[in-house]
Amino acid sequence: xxxxxxxxSLRKIGLFFGSFNPIxxxxxxxxxxxxxxTDMKExxxxxxxxxxxxxxxxxxxxxxxxDMVRRAIDDEPRMRACDAEFELPKPSYTVLTLAHLGExxxxxxxxxxxxxxxxxxxxxxxxxxxxLDHYHIYVYPRPGHDGGKFATHPHIHWxxxxxxxxxxxxxxxxxxxKRDIRFLVPEAVYQHIQxxxxxxx
Length: 201
Prior knowledge:
The chain is an alpha/beta fold. It contains seven helices and six strands, in the order βαβαβαβααββαα.
């Protein structure tokens, strides 16, 4: 269920942060649900060069992951691949990305999209209090995660999305085992991964 939010004359953009290593059908279902059940006009997939809370060693190069996102959403005009964090200092911190995008796109209102597992540990994020006070956060449920102490904050909006037990880690492991991933990723991404032999080692 989506809780109502104040009306704004700005075009609302949902920012879906992630490594997208690789992007998969679960990501697209979440983005599609946000567009269908909220007042977001677009969803931007913000490809992160480095998550401060994750190891970097398994990441494909930044531009290759961005390219796969573009291939995945090529026929959906309400979705966009965003490389904003490529221009910013590493590691990437969401609060700095929000400031950068807000300065660059003054005609847009940005909101965050995250899973309830991330909301559980939101107090580990840099300047999380500022983000919570100044931005709306749209949360999709993840099994075993209820959002913790942030679950009922007025800027937190829960959105019903199908729960799909797919992860990029699982897809990479299947590829290392030379097993089929055809129905876990968009066809264009599948064909590109096959031709480039990504994640096989």
